[in-house]
Design goal:
This protein is an alpha/beta fold. It is about 40% helix and about 25% strand. The protein contains 17 helices and 24 strands. The protein binds 2-deoxy-2-amino glucitol-6-phosphate (AGP).
Length: about 600
């Protein structure tokens, strides 16, 4: 993963580098570093921990003699979290930062660094040392970089500075990298949205690109033209406002972003999209939904929607599995990729793989400038806007909305649902923001649930049918931000093994909407209570009170809005429990917002 920044021939380097790195911190926060760059002079500072740590170290230093800087925020892959493994890797001649993984670094180490005594842990340090070795023989920097590109294998984005010529090379293969230019300098970033306050015009590097910056000139090593595009300004998305964390701000933003997204689908978007869908869904065999983590849970919800409202076969795939599977080219299928960031490596690679097999690809994302948007045939956008908290909240519910709309459009086109049902379903979707606002206001149960969680050693989420994926999502939210052990189970599966986990120290959270499976899920609760377990049940139907059972009454649901209604309280209890535990909610340990490595 990791984030990289470069600011060339500019001023206020310290402030700008820290500003951009803070915006890239969602990509990893194990260590950070910067190299200040000038003619025959490189000064590098690294720190273990977050950007704030690096920022503190920089306060006492001047660095006025420098005109450029490259920097990095790391999510450790190869090599422990340490100052030694922090980027940039540098000496007085070369400084280098990398985002990605160099898969053949062990081979390169054996071939080029045989006589090296130092214990080299990381793939990037290996590349830095190999580059230094190669530079002893290859004096021309263009040729040196071309040689480097020819021997490395993997997914990466690099910035490499040579202090003798003051040239900066940027290389991309798989990992994102963009460059922008204005009167006061040239800016590189792993994420173009981190540059919006500095540049309006952006070029997104393509795989295989080698871009050189030399005395304010940006050129392609293979002679290709660098064509800049206009980038929309992102206003204040990096601010927490009055909220303590991004996660809680993003939870409360849900009524607004869902309303905005639905409005877009209700206006002109689906007119055009519907025509495309009509052509695409002629003779269609199946839809395949693909994602990772929370996005995968959205895929599972989509499967329930499609089974309820259409006659099309649907399957769901983890992107990390799909990309290594043999897929048949005989079927007429549409693959739908779901991703908040639009950059997740497994999802992106699965998309490219499926595309190479000739399938139509749709991406559902809120990151409209992302690589997946550029790769997919069709984009189904959501307007969740930027999500900064590592735990996905508003991006998820907007993905559900996109999938619900996609499903009923298909149901309508194929006449699986009547015009009347279609209009009603659209209305149900329009009503979701009001229901969510109500749930956000009535949160008096939270303290009780937090206290039950505090006295438990594990928490299991149990549900059936369309809320089963929400149980998985609730469990993922809880474990990723509070580190409590948690699983999600399909109610019917309990007696096939998981019920053995139940004792008085375990809390089970049961999602039980009032539908045809209500009684079945109620039996699950009874079976847990009978074994001494504690139960919290979220339901729109009140049942008789029992010892060790806490009931939380939910608004009345329809099939299509059920997953939204049951998601919100699970986001809230995870947040408030993690707050109580004192964890780093927006940047939980070992995680990063955007998983851009395998
Ligand atoms: C969600 O809370 C997680 N942080 C994670 O599972 C995430 O959903 C997953 O990594 C996929 O990310 P994407 O949506 O950006 O592709």
């Amino acid at each position: 993963m990791c984030g990289i920044v470069g600011i060339i021939n500019s001023d206020n380097l310290k402030i700008k580098a820290i500003n951009v790195l803070s915006k890239l911190e969602y990509r990893g926060y194990d260590s950070a570093g910067v190299s200040f760059l000038a003619k025959n002079n490189i000064k590098t500072i690294t720190e273990v921990g977050k950007i704030s740590q690096l920022s503190k170290s920089l306060t006492s230093t001047g660095y006025n003699a420098f005109d450029s800087v490259i920097g990095h925020t790391r999510w450790a892959t190869h090599g422990i979290v340490s100052k030694n493994n922090a980027h940039p890797f540098s000496n007085q001649k070369i400084s280098l930062v990398c985002n990605g993984i160099i898969e053949n670094y062990s081979e390169l180490k054996l071939k080029y660094l045989k006589n090296y005594k130092k214990n080299i842990e990381s793939d990037t340090e290996t590349i830095f040392l190999v580059l230094n070795e190669l530079s002893k023989k290859i004096k021309d920097h263009n040729k040196l970089i071309q040689k480097l590109v020819s021997i490395i294998k993997g997914h990466y984005a690099f910035l490499i500075y040579f202090s003798d010529t003051q040239e900066i090379f940027s290389l991309k293969s798989g990992s994102p990298l963009s460059v922008g230019k204005n009167a006061d300098g040239i800016y590189f970033s792993s994420d173009p949205s981190a540059l919006t306050e500095y540049v309006n015009n952006i070029y997104h590097l393509q795989d295989g690109d080698i871009i050189k910056v030399s005395v304010n000139t940006i050129s392609h090593l293979n002679g290709k033209k660098v064509i800049f595009e206009n980038q929309a300004k992102v206003v204040n998305e990096f601010s927490k406002g009055d909220f303590k964390h991004f996660m809680i701000k993003e939870i409360y933003e849900q009524p607004h972003v869902i309303k905005k997204t639905q409005k877009y689908y209700d206006a002109d978007y689906f007119l055009d999209f519907r025509n495309k869908l009509k052509d695409l869904t002629n003779n269609l065999d199946s839809f395949v939904f693909v994602g990772c983590g929370t996005a995968y849970h959205a895929c599972l919800v989509a499967k329930y929607y499609f089974e309820q409202f259409t006659d099309i076969d649907v399957s769901c795939e983890y992107a990390s599995e799909l990309r290594y599977k043999n897929i048949s080219t005989k079927k007429n299928s549409i693959y739908v990729f779901i991703s908040q960031s639009g950059e997740t490596m497994d999802t992106l690679m699965a998309l490219k793989y499926v595309k190479s097999k000739g399938y139509t690809t749709i991406v559902v994302t809120n990151s409209l400038e992302s690589t997946m948007v550029r790769e997919a045939n069709i984009t189904l956008p959501t307007f969740a806007m930027k999500e900064i908290g590592v735990a996905s909240t508003k991006a998820f519910t907007c993905q559900l909305l996109a999938l619900a709309n996609l499903c009923i459009e298909i149901g309508n086109i194929r006449k699986n649902i009547s015009k009347k049902e279609y209009i009603q379903l659209k209305q149900d979707l329009k009503n979701i923001p009001t229901k969510i606002t109500k749930i956000l206001k009535n949160s008096s149960y939270i303290d009780k649930v937090v206290s039950l969680l505090s006295s438990s050693k594990a928490c299991y989420f149990i549900a059936r049918n369309i809320v089963f994926p929400i149980a998985l999502e609730g469990s993922l939210k809880l474990k990723e931000i509070s580190y409590m052990h948690s699983e999600g189970f399909a109610g019917g599966e309990m007696k096939h093994g998981p019920i053995a986990l139940i004792d008085k120290n375990v809390l089970s959270i049961c999602l039980n909407p009032k539908n045809k499976l209500y009684e079945k899920s109620s039996s699950n609760c009874e079976e847990i209570l009978a074994r001494g377990g504690k139960v919290v049940v979220f339901s729109s139907k009140k049942s008789s009170s029992k010892k060790n059972l806490l009931q939380i009454i939910m608004p009345k649901e329809n099939y299509i809005d059920t997953p939204f209604i049951y998601t919100i309280p699970l986001q809230l209890i995870s947040y408030y429990f993690a707050l109580n535990e004192g964890t780093d909610i927006d940047q939980p340990r070992n995680l990063a917002k955007s998983v851009t490595v395998e």
